[in-house]
């Protein structure tokens, strides 16, 4: 797995240590990986919301958000 070095505030580092010490996570890496998964999900949701807001003409044809998300994921996989 690739290694990345980041700088954290003392409060962030203490929060990570507390999450591990309280037994919520097995390691600090696990805490950071979950935080990144949540960040990625929020970013994707923001992109979907932007697509919905940009579509003022109703050109989505009544497509549901799940369909738009599936299209977004398929496009991301193709460009990766």
Automatic annotation (TrEMBL):
Region forming the signal peptide: none
Gene Ontology BP annotations: regulation of DNA-templated transcription
Keywords: Toxin-antitoxin system
The protein's name: Amino acid ABC transporter
Organism per entry: Rhizobium sophoriradicis
